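Fold this sequence, please.
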Amino acid sequence: MLRPLSLALAAICLCAVPRLQAAQEAGSTVVARVGDTDVTADEIHAAILNLDANTQAAAARDPASLNQVVRAILTQRLILKEALDNKWDQDPSVAAALARSRDNVIAETYLQSISKPPDTYPSDAELQAAYDENKDQFLVPRQYRLAQIYIKAPKGSDPSYAARGEVKLDGIRKALGKRDADFAAIARAESDEPDSAAKGGELGWLGENRIQPEIRTQLGSLTKGSVTEPTRLDDGWHILKVLEVKEPYTPGLAEIRPQLIQQMRAERARANSQQYIAKLLQANTVQINELNLSKVLK
């Protein structure tokens, strides 16, 4: 049985970014420098590939996010340079840790190499069978494109602060009650969430499973263009407008083919790995002296 799709990539590990010399030999362009420490385009590209999917997307569309990635690499370079200048890598405990890391990398990459499924897996027939068997897992829940007016009023805050929130809420409710009320204009002027306020309150598309239950119960009975009653959450008051609704649907195989292939190959690799380890242990008996083992941590 297939596990639910998981498209998240590994978290960033700056220590794994290729060293400067190797990048320069490959002819990579230097795009950042601090002191005599450089960061190349290849290094930035490698770092971004190790980011989760959402952060990758943010770095691609937002220069500020990309700038943060570069600054993190530069900081790591500076620390590494100072550590090597002080021969920190020769400290016995560090040398031992490096040796353990080397052993782990060799063993893990070897296991990955022998567990990798053949390039022909999965076949079209295997892909179709997996899709048919697990169709219910691919259901996309109802989605709402929403806009929001948010009034900051955390529960437990100073009574005078809460009172100001109530006054502001009352004014917004009156403004929305007018026949020619412009939700986007009111959101720009009054919402306390600056990012969405700048876009007329728009939050984009959200699956109903990602929406707070207190709000979700209201949305279920609303249609396009409807506005919810103010909803009190822990952080304050939320008023939402339904801009569009997409009903639940199951995507066709063609739509999820790349993700399904990735998932099936990952699961086959795990199975191959477990089979290899089981055979290896079967051929090499493991013996543990429990008495001596009990003394290790004493």
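The mean pLDDT is 86. Residues 253-283 form the longest helix (31 residues).
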